[in-house]
Amino acid sequence: MLLNGRNAVVYGGGGSIGGAAARAFAREGARVFLAGRHPEPLQAVAEQIRSAGGLAETALLDALNQQAVNEHADDVASSAGSLDISLNVIQHGDVQGTPMSAMYLEDYLRPVSTAVQTTFITAQAAARHMMEQKSGVILAFGGSGTQEPGQYLGGLITAFEAIEAMRRQLAVELGPYGIRVVTLRSGGIPESLPSDMEGREEIAGAIQAATMLKRAATLEDVGNAAAFAASDMAASITAATINISAGALIDW
Question: Quick check: keyword Metal-binding in the entry (predicted)?
Fold first, then answer.
């Protein structure tokens, strides 16, 4: 197994993307620590992992609360013996469907502020332990991308660009300690769209149509890519993105 003996923290572990990554981590042998604000989805993912023979623990946690994140990271490292993988996929509170010219300032800035704060807090908490270990992987999700006419993604793209700037800086500063920092870029995951989302089918169709392979990335694809990126199979990959967009996001 790719992650046998590793300890992984997934912030937003009860969500669709966090759950997919957590299940893949556990499948590959990692002990998974799911953190989030709502107990029911965390427990649901934990039960899925346990029923498949994996190890999972849950913690109610606001990933914007620096003290709580630091205390949780300390507990994980102390009880499990190490903190090897950190992935933050909490929701950023973005508002979509409204042109910037018609948006409220707070709606545009909310995802940017949330992304910067939570990425800083969770990456710093992980880095403290990983620097002592001289090893570890910090994963981000989103990455730089393009915006098609009429998408009206508000501050989401700005938030992703901010995360990328932080990922580049973290990779440079933490590389000498053997810590890798990698972003997963998807171009959109139709399965992750809320079932009651207005225009869900049209949005999912647009995501698929934008790909070269004419199939969008799935949650299973996300989990597989996250497990690979966190493993020694990707030991030479840092300061980089792994593009799982099926060709929607082009790297020429």
Answer: no
If we measure between CA atoms, which residue out of 148, 147, 152 comes closest to residue 99?
152
Please count the structural domains in the chain.
1
Tokens of 52: 């498949």
Q: Torsion angle, CA of 123/128/129/134, rounded to 10 degrees?
A: 100
SS (H, E, C) 179-228: EEEEEEECCCCHHHCCCCCCCHHHHHHHHHHCCCCCCCCCHHHHHHHHHH
- Judge whether 83 lies within some domain: yes
Separation of alpha carbons 177 and 174, rounded Å: 5
pTM recorded for the entire structure: 0.95
Q: Is the model's pLDDT at 179 over the cut of 80?
A: yes
Mean pLDDT of 163-186: 97
Do 117 and 163 touch, CB atoms closer than 8 A?
no
- The confidence score (pLDDT) of residue 147 equals 62
